[in-house]
Amino acid sequence: MVSFITRRILVSILVLVAASFIMYNLAAIAGDPLADIRESTSPNKAELIAARTATQHLDLIPPLRWLLWLGGVGKCVIGQCDLGTTFQGQSVSALLPQALGSTLQLVVFSFIIAIVLGVALGIVTALRVYSGFDYSVTLVSFFLYSLPSFLMAVLLKSFVALGYNNFLADPKIAVTTVIVVGIVVGAIVQLIVGGTAKRRLYAFLISGVVTAGLLALMSATGWFTKPSLGPVFVILFTAGIGLAIVSVLAGTNNRRAWLVGGINVLVAIVSYFALQGLLNVSTGGTILILAVAALLVGLVSGYFVGGYDRPLMMRIGALTAVLTAGIVLLDRFMRAWPAYSNSVGGRPIATVGSSTPTLEGDFWVHGLDTYTHLLLPSISLLLISFASYARYARSGMLEVLDQDYVRTARAKGLPERTVIVRHALRNALIPLATLVATDIGALLGGAVITETVFAISGMGALFNSGLGRTDVNPVMGYFLVIAITAIAFNFLADLAYTALDPRVRVR
What is the DSSP string of 385-399? Predict the structure, then answer.
């Protein structure tokens, strides 16, 4: 293992050096770095040209400038990184953390949701192959995958942000809209449920009526301007999360799983009522401590109740604890919505920037501000990424379901849930490990367009502005982050193979 890691690190360094040489020279010859000064009418034009030439070493050919840049990168080993300066004299080493923070805020949430949603839908469509649900998801996936990211961003700004902000001026839903939405939701649910015509009809009617009823109730009570879950829905949602996790991971006949899930659901419900005073004065640090405490409660409860299947019980406890704690936090954020909406003039869904300047409020108001600014760009990235994960998960699961060991597991009489979750799913995820690793770098790179449309000052803006002025140093800072991320996650993907497939060993 040590020799493998050492070889991979050495090869990665060589690849990084070679790629940086090509990238630096291409960026350096892409334009004239003195064009803006030459076109100006400044009386000290000659002095400005001389100053930039001296600070950026423009009197040297690009390969020699690359050697100087590489020497500055090498100082990172001793903690003294020197990635050069921009034309404005700003240190690239200081700009990168700020830009990277904005991009990570944008990318991480959409990336995680895309993986979870894409893999889940891909597996379900594989289990319901050639059904109406399968065809519907396939159609939507190909449609989303074919849309350019800039078009998706513009559509979201025009129809979602502006439309919803205008709707909040008079948040009343017409009866025809309620009926149409109920019919659409009912049609989707009956595709997911499948089965006999009678079963699908019941699913259509129940889901359609419930959806229409909820929309009518929300419209009548002014829920859109003063949203909250309230104790009843918090209890229902937390109980539903516990039920879903236990049913999927352990089945309905496992008493220990029910006990672990029930403990964590009960803890979440009690915490909802007991911690309201603390949540009202919470900060980011308080929330982090509470999140760690919830995770520990889940793991400890699973450990002590787990018995012969302790690892599974710990996973059930941790997932239940974290997701039910999320419901409690969601309710608290929703109750801060009126204060935030009033502070931004009643148009809360933002279309530009990553935050509202001079916004006043507590932790919950600022959290909502971050959420509303990242909502549309995150959805834009999510919809495009989700489509590819759904297709890969579907094809991987279909391939695994035809393997001999899956047929053997079924022949042994194992429940279908056990066959899918414990035997098929793990092996179906192997191709996705490679896709996820390569997609991370591409997602950071693809954020260039999304950040430009939504005016977010992240890595994309840093790269775009640097390339437009032939300012090589910020471009190379962007390249360095993307290249290191791609190399590191490809290395992690190789290691993930050993965890997903015991037949693969690192030698």
Answer: HHHHHHHHHHHHHHH
DSSP state of 158: I
Where is 74: in which H helix or E strand? helix 62-74
What is the tens place of the pLDDT at every residue in 164-222? 888 888 888 989 999 999 999 999 888 877 778 888 899 999 999 999 999 999 988 88
List the one residue out of 399, 406, 330, 497 whose CA is nearest residue 122: 399
DSSP labels, 239-259: HHHHHHHHHHHT-TT-HHHHH
pTM of this structure: 0.80
* Spatial contact of 160 and 349, defined as CB atoms under 8 Å apart: yes
Residues 120-154 have pLDDT tens digits of 888 888 888 888 788 888 888 888 888 877 788 88
Cβ atoms of 262 and 242 within 8 Å: the answer is yes
Average pLDDT over residues 274-280: 88
Cα separation, 347 vs 254, whole angstroms? 49
Say if CB 249 and CB 260 are below 8 A apart: no
**435 sits in which H/E element:** helix 430-453
Of 284, 457, 271, whose CA–CA distance to 354 is shortest? 457
Tell me which residue has tokens 């050919």. Answer: 61
Contact 263, 322 (CB under 8 A): no
> Where a domain ends, among 299, 330, 345?
345
Residue whose token pair is 């659901």: 265
3-class state of residue 91 by DSSP? strand
**Nearest partner of 238 among 209, 269, 202, 204, judged by Cα:** 269
Per the domain annotation, does 409 fall within a domain? no
Are 208 and 188 spatial neighbours (Cβ–Cβ below 8 Å)? no
Which structure tokens are listed for 203? 């699913």
Q: Are residues 184 and 235 in the same domain?
A: no
Please say if the pLDDT value at position 446 is more than 80: no
Question: Of 310, 345, 380, which one is at a domain's C-terminal end?
Answer: 345
Q: Determine the structural domain holding residue 29 and report its residue range.
A: 2-96+443-500
More confident position, 441 or 102: 102
